[in-house]
């Protein structure tokens, strides 16, 4: 029988979930969404919240519900090689390729760039990232409880500072909410939905979900139903906190355009707002807290990546992996925040549908008796759409013409796949195959026909 968990423990777990998800992307992307969604702010924020808040919660619950030891085991239900490749790609995405470089770039753009002349911005980024990732490497090579303890202090302090900033902006907005821009004019919900991919929280939830599951288990909850219930209740705390912060930062962004103008990223919105309301002191305080918070996130990502790759390739030491990953992270960070965001989008357009498919399959698995062929078929059809979306987005990012072989496939998808234009072309074929598979398995099981 499961032990009973007190309300205070649910709150503790909720803050643990919140701390796992709350990082650099959670600050800049809602601000950018607010600036560009304008009068369509609310509906865009709802779409953003689904992928930025709802999916990460479902990702953690999927790990618990499936009784999987980790993401590789869950994705390995498709095939062991797929499980390995998908997990490796996901770790590299939330690690040295995109999320980790973004921690340094965000800390610099919000905290330090406002104090540096435009002519010296690139040099400033180089010097800052040398120090930032040098400290990351040093502390990642020598993991200590000090980092965790600092992180537990920083998260509440940063939230408190943000709360003061957002409450001030709510009662005393910088300007009127601006006009919607770009795709936020015609499709604000779906644009916000896809923008939520940039947080990478759903991907991270599949990797770090086991941390929350273990915390629940250590409190005496062992059954699948109990773990799901406890995670769900704690998740409501995290969802509430993240949702309020997202909406607040998005509103701040929406009311900043008249005073600050439009930016390529959301970083200058926060530093500009801190300067507007609290002057230099506010900017310095924000810089310190965000830099330290991003630093603890960077250390956590490097440590997690080093440990995972050392597990699958034990012949290479943990310290060598961490050194290689931190060096690569430093190099990528110096391309700048805007470039990191631009080049991450093709990868996210490819990976996110596969991650969402795995999450849905984890919950639906009992309905099709955990048959491997269902995993294989649904992932194949999802992959067929997401890989094309990724390549198409890459062409757009590089500002090159689409490949000749790509155009007829895109035309076919646009003509026959519902929601393809909104970036969700994989959903309908995935659901059709899943529903047919569930019905088929149920019929065959009832008639005692063996299905692999």
Task: Give a short synopsis of this structure.
The chain has 452 residues and is mainly α. It has helices at residues 7-21, 25-37, 41-66, 71-75, 80-97, 99-111, 121-141, 145-171, 183-186, 188-195, 201-218, 224-254, 257-260, 267-312, 318-333, 337-364, 372-398, 406-416, 427-446.
Report what the structure shows:
With 452 residues, the protein is mostly helical. The chain is built from 19 helices and no strands. Helix 5 crosses helix 14, helix 7 runs parallel beside helix 14 and helix 8 packs antiparallel against helix 14. The longest helix has 46 residues. The protein is globular and about 75 Å long. The model has no long low-confidence stretch (mean pLDDT 89).
> Number of helix segments?
19
Which oligomeric state applies? single chain
Dominant shape: globular
Q: What profile does the largest beta sheet have?
A: none
- C-alpha Rg, in Å? 22 Å
Order of helices and strands: HHHHHHHHHHHHHHHHHHH
Structural class: mainly alpha
- Look at the structure and give the mean pLDDT: 89
Helix content: over 70%
Strand content: under 5%
Q: Unreliable stretches, pLDDT < 50, 5 or more residues?
A: none
Report, as a whole number of angstroms, the end-to-end distance.
34 Å
Query: What is the number of strand segments?
Result: 0
